[in-house]
Amino acid sequence: MKKWMKKAGLVAASVAAMTTLVSAGPARADIGRVFYFTIQNNTICDATGRYTSLYLNISNIGSSSANVTVHLYNNAGVEVSPTGITNLAYNFPSNLTINSDTTIGSRSSLNYMTIFGVGGAGNVCGDIPAYGKIVVDEGGAIIANGEIKGTVQSSSFVAQDMPILINNGQPF
Fold this sequence. Notes:
The strands form two sheets. Strands 1, 3, 4, 5 and 7 form a five-stranded antiparallel sheet that branches. Strands 6-2-8-9 form a four-stranded antiparallel sheet, with no helix packed on it. The chain has one helix spanning 2-22; strands spanning 33-38, 50-60, 66-73, 79-80, 102-104, 108-117, 131-138, 142-152, 157-165. The chain is mainly beta. 26% of the residues are buried. It contains one helix and nine strands, in the order αβββββββββ. The chain has one domain (33-169): Hypothetical Protein Tm1070, Chain: A (Sandwich). Keywords: Signal.
């Protein structure tokens, strides 16, 4: 009888311990939302007559502000921080800084525009991004898209014009 009671006591203690473990609650990892996108970066670009322009538009369609960071990487997978154009003469001034945490207000947008190659605001052709990611730390509902163009400066001929699709245009 003592032996049976000892076994029953061990079983009861095991069940109690397992119940405590199971009811402790699920583990949770708050890492935010991360969305990767590709950029067709084999556009025409040199230091004498052809340049590549990169455009990004990130909008928060949610009812609360969102904290986001946009990261860009070149062909070698090295993070790059191309300087955005802020000159209003381009009619598309950048108000987004790459690789920097930024808050986007509710129902607001941020724009990014830069040029690589001739007249490229100091951005060399080798730093044209091949891919990027958007990290949303908290809040909002983000939609984003972009475009990359290769242009011949002397004639303003656009040799290449490719969209940058981010999450198929769906909110994230």
